[in-house]
Amino acid sequence: MNAEPLDANTIRALVADATAAPSLHNAQPWAFRCLRDTGVIRLYADPRRTLPHTDPQNRGLHVGCGAALFNLRVAAAAAGLAPDVKLLPDPAFAGLLAEAQLSGTGPVDGALARLAPSIRRRHSSRHPFREEDVPAAVRDRLSEAAVLEGAELFFPDPWHVGSILELVQDAEVTEAFDPGVHEETVRWTRPDPSSAAGTADGIPGEAFGPRQRGTSVPVRDFALGRPVPGRGWAVFEKSPNIALLGTARDEPLDWLRAGQALERVLLQATADGLVASITSQPMEWPDIRWAVRDPLSAMANVQMVIRLGYGPEGTASPRRPVTDVLDVL
After folding, report:
1. Shortest CA distance to 16 belongs to which of 126, 120, 117?
2. CB burial class (10 A; 0-12, 13-18, 19+) of residue 84?
3. What local confidence, expressed as pLDDT, does residue 2 receive?
4. How far is 123 from 314, CA to CA, in rounded Å?
5. C-alpha triplet 7, 201, 312: angle, nearest 5°
6. How far apart are CA 156 and CA 132, in angstroms?
7. CB hemisphere CA count around 208 (13 angstroms)
8. CA dihedral 95, 175, 303, 220 (to 10 degrees)
9. Dihedral over alpha carbons 247, 253, 256, 261 (to 10 degrees)
10. Which residue ranges in the chain fall short of pLDDT 50?
11. For strand 96-101 and strand 211-212, is the pairing parallel, antiparallel, or unpaired?
12. pLDDT in tens, 244-269
């Protein structure tokens, strides 16, 4: 390892992998700045991409940026770098979320590097999954992935899964009667294919997945009654595999950790042959969020509901060009 200035192509490749992370409504609320002479990449929140009605505390923004930071760490490890990461490094500037010193001299994290192939394979799958349990050994690996990032992954029992599904429905009803949330969802989701819309963000029609017939799994229906070309109906699994990702505290620092844990879980799931979809709907309403937590779990604050299983891979959502999100100084 050395402290030579980072190659421009390496910087762009690292940030391109970072931006493959999931974010609320695929708003991609991040911006990066690289200080080449010092080997530092800074991660900022992009205030132009907030969702003030859906995400008034910017919790979801921090989770998404945390996921992008984890991808950056994975890509750096795969490139033979050993990043030294500081979260919220400047208390006077809340918009600076993290700083990664990439020219460190520590050992390369092989476990992170091995997740690199999953970065481009991971896509949210809003399709039906097979009625098949996730093996205990795989669950253990996913739980360990969350712990390594300072979070917890909990698999609730069937009774509580049923309760979570009802809470997701409650959140959908609440959302339907909030014009601000409705407007934001319409703004960031597009029934037409991404090729027709020509956009680099948001969720295109081909990523919506089919309409649910007869069951209710925690998959957000982004159509909102709008016609989606070629979209049909499908029967989803009756007993979905649900995991809750949570943290001990509920501050911006914890949200960034939750985002890193979320992405580590999703990349590990992808490596293990699983597909996943995530929902934050119950998290977006304080009077519903508290009930998502399993009373038998020590988890204090649920940050995300994850649906896991075996089935078709999801469709890739568009991404902004690296030139739009990266400044190199």
Report:
1. 120
2. middle
3. 45
4. 5
5. 95
6. 16
7. 29
8. -110
9. -30
10. 1-2
11. unpaired
12. 999 999 999 999 999 999 999 999 99
Q: What's the pLDDT score for residue 1?
A: 43
The helix/strand/coil state of 150 is coil
**Contact status, residue 81 vs residue 104, Cβ threshold 8 Å:** yes
| Of 172, 10, 143, the residue nearest 80 (C-alpha) | 10
Q: Cα–Cα distance between 190 and 135 in angstroms, integer?
A: 36
Computed on alpha carbons and rounded to an integer, the radius of gyration of the chain in Å comes to 19
Structure tokens, 16: 């391109």
Query: 43: which strand partners?
Result: 32, 98
Token duo for residue 86 = 């500081």
Residue in this structure with the two tokens 């027709």, named with its chain if needed? 196
Question: 105-160: per-residue pLDDT in tens?
Answer: 679 999 999 999 999 999 999 999 999 999 999 999 999 999 999 999 999 999 99
Tally of helices (H runs) and strands (E runs) in the chain: 11, 13
Q: Hunting for tokens 């029992």 — which residue is that?
A: 157
